[in-house]
Design goal:
Blueprint: E1 5-12, E2 21-28, H1 35-44, E3 72-75, E4 78-81, E5 94-97, E6 104-106, E7 109-110, H2 113-121, H3 142-151, H4 159-163, H5 176-187, H6 195-202, H7 216-220, H8 227-247
Helix pairs in contact: 3-5, 5-6, 5-8, 6-8
Length: 252
């Protein structure tokens, strides 16, 4: 890629109530730059392509190694992680926009509360009773541990929700990531004690019935999590749970 500058076309927004607008920047190019490096250039030299001084572009990032999930944004029309997206692998000019599924706070910074509220709804944690010295708990079978580990890679980046056509302002569907976390915590020997509660939450409005099986989520997940496999397994589990609820028995 023989070039000295890089053109970035960035969708910006000054605050949650203002209208979005597009601003173009030309930044110095370096081999093996990622999108975060390119955005840093706009902060070092906040001058747009027209030579006008402007405000530095705002975005979120933390780990810079595809672990925290904070730097999710739409790059060339695809939701992805800015830290692991290399400019050498992108078509030029590079178009960068905030994820549309979540409310914009400023520029590329979005409010992902919708996703975190969904995780609360499905109780995506292992409840404890305050004790800590009861010794080791039940062991998880190795075959189960292997696929559960894959689910545990979720970094709540929100990319799968951005790609899902059923997660939008007109829908209360919780999305693929919270669904997959239900399967993860229900597989845990201790978390399984609250399995019924999580499945009951999935049978409410916005739960698993909101999935349209577009399979976009599994295509864009930066960690390669088998989200559709989890959703298929949860379809079975919720059906069994509905029979248990109907007959009032755990023996079904």
């Amino acid at each position: 890629m023989a070039q000295e500058t890089l053109k970035l076309i960035i969708t910006r927004q000054d605050n949650p109530d203002s209208s979005p607008y597009v601003e173009t920047f030309e930044v110095n190019y370096r081999k093996n730059m990622n999108i975060i490096s390119a955005l840093m250039e706009t902060q070092r030299f906040p001058i747009n392509a027209d030579g006008e001084k402007t405000s530095p572009v705002n975005w979120e990032s933390n780990c810079l190694e595809e672990v925290c999930g904070a730097c999710s944004m739409v790059i060339n029309d695809e939701p992805r992680q800015a830290c692991s997206t290399l400019v050498d692998q992108l078509e030029q000019p590079i178009r960068i926009a905030p994820m549309a599924t979540f409310p914009v706070e400023r520029d590329l910074v979005v409010d992902r509360s919708r996703m975190f509220d969904s995780l609360k709804k499905v109780k995506a944690w292992i409840p404890i009773d305050g004790t800590y010295d009861l010794g080791p708990g039940p062991r998880m079978p190795e075959t189960k541990r292997q696929w559960a580990y894959e689910l545990s890679k979720c970094m709540t980046c929100g990319v799968c929700l951005e790609a899902c056509p059923n997660v939008n302002s007109s829908s209360d569907f919780i999305g693929p990531a919270p669904l997959s976390q239900v399967r993860l915590f229900n597989a845990h020997p201790t978390g399984e004690m609250n399995k019924g509660e999580r499945l009951d939450a999935l049978m409410e409005d916005g739960g698993i019935s909101g999935c349209g099986n577009s399979q976009n989520c599994v295509q864009v997940c930066p960690k390669g999590i088998p989200l559709t496999t989890s959703i298929a397994a949860l379809n079975r589990d919720t059906n069994i749970q509905s029979f248990k609820n109907f007959f009032g028995s755990d023996s079904v």
